[in-house]
Amino acid sequence: MSSTSTTPAVALAATGLGKRYGRRAAPALEDCSFRLPAGRISALVGPNGAGKSTLLALAAGLLQPTAGTLTVLGAAPGALRDRVAYLGQNKPLYPQLTIADTLRMGAELNPARWDAAYAARIVEEGALRPGQRIRGLSGGQRTRVALALALGKRPDLMLLDEPMADLDPLARHELMGTLMADAAERGTTVLMSSHIVSELADVCDHLLLLGGGRIRLGGGIDDLLAAHTLVTGRGTAADLAPHTVVESRTAGRGLTALIRREGPVDPAWQTEEPSLEELLLAHLRSPDAPALLTPATTAAPLEVRA
Amino acid sequence: MSTTTLTAPAPSRRTATRPHGLVWSVLRLHRTALWVWLAFVVATAGFLLWLTGPAAHDAQHQLETYGYAGVLEAASSSATLFSFTSGAYNDLFYDPDNLITLGGFAVALFAAGPLIGRELENGTAQLAWTQSVSPARWLAAKLAVPACFLVLGNGLLAALYHHLWSAHSNLLVAGITPRALYFSLGPATVAAPLLGLALGALIGLTVRRTLPALALSGFVYFLVYAFRGNHWPFQGRYTQPVPTSNSWAIDTTGAKVPDPDCYLDRGCLASHHIARFAREYLPSPDYWPRQLLETGVLLTLTALTITAAFTVVRHRAA
Fold it and tell me: Does A110 sit within 8 Å of B25, measured CB to CB?
């Protein structure tokens, strides 16, 4: 594990981060502050247009923020390109190259870190021939090659934008396995956006929920689930004080609500721990619920930087 | 799954002779364009050598027999609607210049489209930027590799053309065209396509879509082309001075005599005892000042454009 000894404890740290495309456009990200501890596999979730892709592109050094600061592995975004891998949403690859040439390009452009055998294995597991041109591959096959290119450089931080969207279930399971084995073995930090909640629940141990350009929920998935309770019973949302009601719905003559507990819950209510899906859906349906970030994920109070 | 495949790093390809890293990647991505460019240079160079050698034979014979009248005769013998297809030596002589100009346009379009604009449109530029390569280094390689091939190719063509001018400019019908060619050939011939490359790259970076970038780049390079040779503000109101051409005859005793103005009348020539004619263009003292000034302007504009391109890249990506 010598490769991780130099990794700072924080993989990503944002303070007041904002990005606006053009002066008159609504900001894609606004006043975003959080920390992503190193070594976590974090799910970046949010409705369409929430700013997920923008956040990932900022971290990869592909865009300049219009406000705030972002540090990646303790340095400015783009300063440590050799240690950060990025997989864009549309998985751009050069259509005129063969798979072998694409991997050769990975070797040429990442001279210090390229693991040719590892990259080749990822491609071979998909029954792809090295001589095939990218142009002739299906969407899922392209994703596999793009992932091989991203993983072949053995990054310390992986930024994956909807990595598995166009893979069939078998390939998705297989590639997730490869990805997670690598992450577990090398302590890689992963931040991946996805819409497939079931996929996230299996592999991620950390969550960042973006909504309206801000972080709505951030922290270890277990901590976040433990902080919330799903309650059912007779009464109104007002009866649930002092707990924070994230979302409440009337169900028959009763009420079902997702709350953030402030102390013990009145035993008159039936309680159960929510699933990740219930937690996410409740927050997505109520954009006005206050944000919650666990201590490790909260941005450090303005640190003095040289 | 998690077997540690600590394979030894791939055998080093960093031998001195083979390109690696970004240079390899640029060469591989634009392999077709490179082959097209090499084919263009070889074909144009072959054309120039042919004009220097066998193609000049007939016109040379006409000049030696009839003097300047023979040159006029040779130039008008096979005139067609389009001068570049006439086959007359006087017309063929200018065709490489047209080809080199078209090559410059092709370079400007290539830079705006396949080299830069398409990469930004498809997102493949971001693929390069997320390897261990910063956008600035990426742009530097994207400009430097084609620039090397442009300088070598156009340098060779300009040198061959200059040689052709020295050998056979005496076979050209006097007028604006030989003058314009004389003053445009030289270092500026090499510098203009470099400006096209830089302009295309800047347009590709700012427009970020292939088709509009192609259109804009073609238009902007047309402006460069229109200014070239004759219309730079520093050249003043007047066009280039006419390079002096000398014509003389040599009689059967070997003495240098003036042209007897016999035109194509062999009897008249015989009565003057004319053995053959000769003609030459004298180098103009205005050539180097004009050529170097134009080259300087072109290279300065190239440097400014490249600076702007790097500023755009730095501004966009971290």
Answer: no
